[in-house]
TrEMBL record:
Pfam families: MutS_I, MutS_II, MutS_III, MutS_IV, MutS_V. It comes from Kosmotoga pacifica. ATP binds at residues 615-622. It comes from the Bacteria. Residues 689-705 form the DNA mismatch repair proteins mutS family domain. This is DNA mismatch repair protein MutS.
Amino acid sequence: MRRLLTLEEVYGLSARELTPMMKQYLEIKENYKDCILLFRLGDFYEAFFEDARKVSEALQIVLTSRNGNPMAGVPHHAVDQYVKKLLDAGYKVAICEQVEDPATAKGLVKREVTRVLTPGTLMEDDLLPSETNNYISILGEYKGRLALAISDISTGEVGTSTVMLEDAKDLLEKFRPSQLILQESLVEHKDYLTSGMSNLFVEVFENWNFAHSSSVEYVKRFYGLASLDVLELSETEVTVLGALFKYLEITQFKTFKHLSLPVKLQAPEYMLLDAATIENLSLLPSEKRGSLFETLKETATAMGARLLKKWILTPLTTRPEIEKRLDYVEAFVQDRLLHEEFREFLRRVFDIERIAARLSSGKAVPRDLQSLRSTLQILPYIKELFETNSVFLQIAEEIPDFSYERNLLETALEDEPSASPGDGNVIRAGYNREFDELRELLYSSKEKLQEFEQKEKSRTGINSLKVKYNKVFGYFIEVPKTQLAKIPDDYIRKQTLVNSERFITPELKGFEDKLLSASERIEVMERELFSEICQKLNDSADEFKRVAKILSAADVYQSFATVARKYGYTRPRFSEKRYLLLKNSRHPMVERYIRDFVPNSVVFDEERIFYILTGPNMSGKSTFIRQVALCAIMAQIGSFVPAAEAVLPIYDRVFTRIGARDDVAGGKSTFLVEMMETASILSKATEDSLVVLDEVGRGTSTFDGISIAWAVSEFIYEAIGCHTVFATHFTELTELASMYKGIKNITVAVEETDKGIIFLHKVIEGVAERSHGIEVAKLAGIPQVVLDRAKEILGVIVKSSALDKTVKVLTSEEITKIRKTKKGKMHRNQLSLFEGS
């Protein structure tokens, strides 16, 4: 481990030149060398030496100095926003607090690091994206096997999976964590795992943290379990999960009791979507315009938006659960009044999922309790609303009463509390008598003194009596010497002046003591009262999380209903046999941006399981194949679909191979990436999958490409037998339709005119006569001289290089070989099942 350089080595300073505080700073910094240490000094957090330079550069603040030492500071009340910028710049940040009162400290104030902040350990509302989960992930190994665990500590979610290295990368791309903890022994795979994820913060965790025996104890202690059998985790998953909990405890100085029991990241009841499919179908927001998430997002809460994203990534594969979701969506569609009223109520529902997590971890602030109160107040109305519709009765019954918690918040919390407890504006009047007296004393001290003065005048008969204050003597009663005979026995002389005497009474002394300490006492007491309220509410944290799940799911249902009504979606039905009918289906994203979108229909049945789609560029081939896949995914997440009629099977997976991209950092060419994606489909797809392909084989020479595309098509048809749509410019592939019963040719219609071609965007049976590439080039603005020359060259090539039509249908022996290959391991040379030119 690298040694921290001494001041003499860095700045030429000797130990004698160090103040006690700087010595304290360096002693603490020694244990947090990999962090920027923010050191609390009064109202600021200061960074020194090299940390100061980093802070100054990252935050664009002035670099100052103290005794010649670089320093940079940020105000304590705004530290969160500065910390976020440091994290975004790729730094870890250690927060060093004053852990004793400077007013009562003897000598140097004691300081300790109370938390280490990393991108994946944030819980503060202002630091988190509201509609996206903030995952921390960890990858480790045990006995030669890998496991990945992820958690969003702001919501309490935990998931695990035993994986291969490529699966780990796929899951990382899918869940897009903000932080990856990588076991030291796996550092060699860092570049592969993180390629394409520029904002991923990676931290290496030493191997000893992944000891299986200690991980078992960590997981047991974390969940309070005597045995881990109930979790149904592999040994590797336990090892990695324990290492994650260890990391959280080390950096956060606590265990997180709000974390849920781990779920499987790859479970049979969910469709597994790989990263390529998520990207190719634009399921989640990206730099490209439009995504399925944005298209379906009419949610009214942050919880609902996060759940919608999860549902899109994990479509269901069990029909009863899908139908249950669709029933709720249909009920909202049919009961418009209930739908609109529920949307209105949702405006008062806040992110109680994260609020519950902050309550459990001791990080709740007054604004959290204000939001929780608003949500609990609206719950009875939502419950009553759902009781009016039989479909929602079960949801209504599951909504708890929360009368105790609601009453506590209504009686204890101000209507508009301050940002943090301590200034007397968080706890409502009437909640605590002593606190009310202190606040009343502080805020009405002038009136109290006037009342006391008037009472003393009446009691003594001395109308010239005055109650005064100065910094030396505090509060006192001043009486003219001519009235001294009327002074009561309880007056205690404090000072003699020329014309008057000053006195104190036990009552005034008590008032003075209370008043002078009221501000300090209010700060301490309000924090204590707020903490007590949070502890009482924390007893219901699990119930808050449960109702958060109910409300977020209902929010997604109404979001689906809103979109369905607005854009004319229909409820999908599911076929027992492998039958699909999409009548007049549309692309859910594209139709938002194109006027008069042309719908298209498609059928899969026993006679039609594989379509070869030809047509020119810009005709809509990619749009068509994508909309088939999107409709299938939408149906299985419980959404209505953009079609006049939709009957679908339940697919176990949807695969896509679309577009051309390379991986320069990974040393992979466009064609290699294309072949790797295709190979993954051929090895993972089953009879119950849906595969959409776009231009397989286009990244290499024409005949090589045709050969591969032909062989891939035969393999999918014979060895896998799944529903497939293959869009291609290789019209030679259409010969497959005459050779195999279940393969059909379809094309996108175009109209040729004297002025050029018109794209009709209508999918019909048949084969494209040609690709019309030169016509499309003309539309793009290619000079006419180039277009004319291209036509001449095309004529020569067509005459001299036509594909030899000697490809024969596979024999029964060859088909058997393909099917055996699918059951076993697929080798690249077995793609060469092409015989001919």
